[in-house]
Design goal:
It is a single chain. With 100 residues, the chain is mainly alpha-helical. The chain is 41% helix and 10% strand. It contains four helices and two strands. Strands 1-2 form a two-stranded parallel ribbon. The longest helix is centred in the N-terminal third of the chain and has 14 residues, at 22-35. The chain starts with 21 loop residues before the first helix and ends with a helix.
Length: 100
């Protein structure tokens, strides 16, 4: 028999897309989840890979009191370095990265 908890131990908050204003969305939805009782304010983690990893680092840097911890999986920590080291096979999307 599965025991159902009133509050889940964690809530996954996805980070779709790569627009910079997504950081505000992540902050807002995290605060909303805490206010709704869906997440415990002292147990919220932020996790992401690639751009989501960058969003994880930004979340921990700009709103450190919002997250208990974070896991960055291959997220770029320096966007200028990323643009200087873009592999040749990324060439078709390089312009989109530069505009962001």
């Amino acid at each position: 028999t599965q025991k159902l908890h009133k509050r889940p131990p964690f809530v996954l908050i996805p980070c779709p897309g790569a627009a910079m204003n997504k950081q505000d969305d992540l902050t807002d939805v995290t605060k909303w989840a805490v206010a709704q009782g869906l997440a415990a304010h002292d147990k919220v983690a932020i996790v992401g890979g690639s751009y989501g990893g960058y969003a994880t680092l930004a979340g921990l840097a700009f709103t450190p009191d919002l997250y208990a911890c974070g896991v960055d999986i291959v997220g770029p920590s320096n966007l200028q370095t990323l643009l200087r080291t873009v592999p040749a096979w990324w060439a078709p999307m390089r312009r989109a990265l530069e505009l962001r």
